[in-house]
């Protein structure tokens, strides 16, 4: 600006002042401002704040009398440990510059920090209330820890004392498989890496190449509020609240409190305490199991003894088995004794009834079979194949004569068709006649076998005899005595006897005659 105002000539006066272009004036102002304020630290309250899609951050720094516009470029905003929030009191470090397009000046911020612990605590409380209003800290969202996890995932720095304390404590209490996800535990990279680790453990598939943890521990040693600030970031809190795997927060010492403690399922005062929460003491568990096993054995023994005594008491009140079975056993023996004679008597009665019916049925069956045989012979004569063939031959001759008189081609085709049908019918008729003849013959043979079976002559062959008085069959003793003269038919012939007659026969050697006695 001084260069523009320098002039070797005399003062030209107000009317002869040199003329400058707008760009020249803007460039001179920009050069002066940037030269005089190339590095400044400004303390103020964050006012208007906007984050467009470009990734830059535009904000106002204000106090009770003035407002200073500021901008944080995208590259710087991604590296900042503390993200500005509206109403937050901060100390911003950067440089002043002008914006010629709007004749304004602004501060290009390179670093921003809260203005003291009070400002951090105010911002922390505001963030805690906002997240609590969303329900991220509700007790209903918290899941119980597994009794004995197979795999434990630990999110912490791989080189610090925290991981050594956790592994040592797990080894002393109950050794388990441990997966370590290394992260930065302070600085600008802390929050995104911790959130990515929690989500990464949850993204593992059960039964995959890398086992999915049953429990997650997020751990860090003690430090100042600024050192632990990454665990207060919203991205970490949301990742902890969304975790499907139960999560223990072990950040800082017992007096340190971060927002992840509220979102976690359990809070441990120290990383060592987190390992104690994760697994029980193996020796204590074995001792408890031994004690429980002893109690169970005693309870089973006492229960069996009590039930045995109860069973004995109940059995003494029951009647003796022999007395219960004596009555039914005696009745069964009596029924068995009566069963054999009853069966024999019933069989004899049925056999006699069958003989009587067979004697009456025999002549009638013979006559019926004879009539059927005559009828079958007549039917067989009527169905003679020779006679049928003669009839067919005559019909064929008549058809041939009829075909000779028909000269029309259509009638000739019909004659050929009818002749073929007639031949087929003849073949079928012959087969039907033979089948019916065989069927009648088989039926007649069956009737003959039935007659033979039901006839009394078959009964005579089994040792029975038929007693007749004239043409009548005698079935009783009194009837035989009244008849006087009887005829007995055996299987091999007939014998005439006189009822009540006594016959004598000589003994061999000329002995005395023996009285034979009556036939009945």
Task: Give an overview in words.
The chain has 520 residues and is of the alpha/beta class. It has helices at 2-5, 22-36, 74-79, 117-133, 161-173, 190-203, 234-242, 259-263, 271-278, 282-316, 321-382, 385-405, 409-454, 456-460, 477-483; strands spanning 40-50, 57-62, 67-72, 89-99, 104-114, 151-156, 177-182, 215-220, 247-251, 266-267, 466-469, 472-473, 485-490, 493-498, 504-505, 514-515. It has four domains: 2-115, OB fold (Dihydrolipoamide Acetyltransferase, E2P), CATH 2.40.50.140; 124-280, Response regulator (Rossmann fold, 3-Layer(aba) Sandwich), CATH 3.40.50; 340-458, no CATH class; 466-506, no CATH class. It has a five-stranded mixed barrel. A five-stranded parallel β-sheet has the order 7-6-8-9-10, sandwiched between helices. The longest helix has 62 residues, at 321-382. The protein is elongated. Residues 502-520 have low confidence and may be disordered.
The residue-averaged pLDDT reads 82
**CATH homology superfamily of the largest domain:** Response regulator
Cα Rg: 64 Å
Number of separate helices: 15
Binned, the helix content reads 40-55%
Distance between the termini: 174 Å
What tags apply to this protein structure?
single chain; 520 residues; 5-stranded parallel sheet; 15 helices
